[in-house]
Amino acid sequence: MSACVSEEIDKTGKRTWLQKALIFAGLALGLLIIGASIRLSSFEDAVESIVRIEVPAGVLTELPTASQNEISKGLEEKTVTESEVISQEVNLHPAGPARNILLVGTDSAVGLDPDDPAANRDRSAGIGLADTIMIVRLDPALAKATIMSLPRDLYVTIYREGIPVRSEKLASALLVGGLEKGAPTLVETITNNFDIPIHNFAIVDFFGFETLVDELNGVPLWFPYPVRDVASGLMVLEAGCTTLDGRDSLAFVRSRKLEAFIDGNWNRVGVWNDLERNQRQQDFLIRTIQRAIGKGARSVIVQDDLIRAGAEAVVLDDRLSIAELLKLGRSFSDFNPSDLVRTLLPVVDAVIGTSAVLELGEGASSSFAVFRGEGLSPDDISIRIIDSRGENNNLEEITDEIVRRGFKIDIEQGEMVEETVIEFALEDYEEAVLLGRFIEPIPKFELVNESLESLTLVIGEDFEALPLIPKTFEEVDARARPSLPVSEKLLGSNEEASGVINLVKPLLPLRQGEISPMKLVQEIDGQPPSGQKCG
Fold first, then answer.
1. Which of 33, 143, 421, 529 has its Cβ near the most Cβ atoms within 10 Å?
2. Which domains are assigned to the chain?
3. pLDDT band at residue 476, thresholds of 50, 70 and 90?
4. How far is residue 179's CA from residue 247's CA, in Å, rounded to a whole number?
5. In whole angstroms, what is the distance from residue 5 CA to residue 3 CA?
6. Which of the listed ranges 167-181, 207-221, 397-411 does the model predict with the highest average pLDDT?
7. Entry pTM
8. Do you find a cis peptide bond into 467, omega within 30 degrees of 0?
């Protein structure tokens, strides 16, 4: 580890919640707990002990990075010139660009006790499928995190080493890739089928998941009714707050046939499919983050055993460095967990041959677009246009074209300026990037401190045209991102964040009947009712 990074660690004196989660990463079933030890030696030893998977070139999408000198320069100047961006052709914001991290939980049973329900299987303990697959998009400059689950039963074309091998359920991509290339095969399959760039991945198996939960002394969940799943081994006999140990937690997140005991009868929760299980896994993730925070994940004192358990359980790609983990942690030091965004992937039931599978449903492309930075539509955006070219002979032609693209506009005249500029508030950054994709040349981006009713496009003398094909998100984002503020925490300030997790779940359709199975899915989310405490 470099002396520069060591000095930064010594200055901070503690680690943030997001740092702990990225290193700790109980990813088997979406267990993303981000953290690190305040003790430099323990932190280094733990990270160095993490097993790494060597990834062939071209599998993971490369990220542009900024050097330490660029970080210092950005803190002093708060911006860079457009010519510098063009000449270096990298994203120069010190926090770095948005990245997609693939979180994979395998159903390998190696290490489990023989009497553990998860150890009962029809194949060797060491052969694992992808039991849980999640994509987390982290935008450090905006301190924004988005998560989406990919159902294991999605029917896709499996790609290995750039070649389509066969069509199968997504979970089998690990098996097709084999012991050494399972994770890269899964990455290739996701990238080729869904056009989502994957920048890093992390993997954990059943045993690692149980170990991590046990290091937290269990995870407390609130159940409004007694619940069970005979197949997974879950049995909670009393309603109210129950702390699940590692084995019971695994049974909960693996549950496909969850039932609730209501009015003397066992009633199924949902319709027993991957979507409900994915939602339960994300619910469990939130409760686990709460548990980790309660155990001191944001405080100065952190147990070495917790850090080491995470390091021993997780497997990472060979691209995710210590420096990147630390930088991500500092960028998210003020992140409020209630701001975590959940994206639902629409799927429909299907039968291929004799296998029941899932296929993409209507609107799936919009869900994937979020993880390419393209989740917005021009229809969602209003623009204030100020024509500042001096002469506006073709203003009507320009505005008509912008309207045809879907934007809503207001027009006014302004004093002449040379350069076309998009003025935006911080919360409207993504809208500003989308607008910039339709302007030639790519305009200058200016962040304004106050909130704006709409984006402002100042058309300058350099304006040329509205391109027929919008520019890529990456190209425009690289120009716009340096206009974002630079947090001093990137160089070591560590203020503790606070906030109660209160996640808004995606709406699910309700079935008819006295006791709605889908309503039970909403009720059994692990969160206590208002006024009650759990854990």
1. 33
2. 3-207+288-341 (3.40.630), 378-486 (3.30.70.2390)
3. very high
4. 25
5. 6
6. 397-411
7. 0.76
8. no
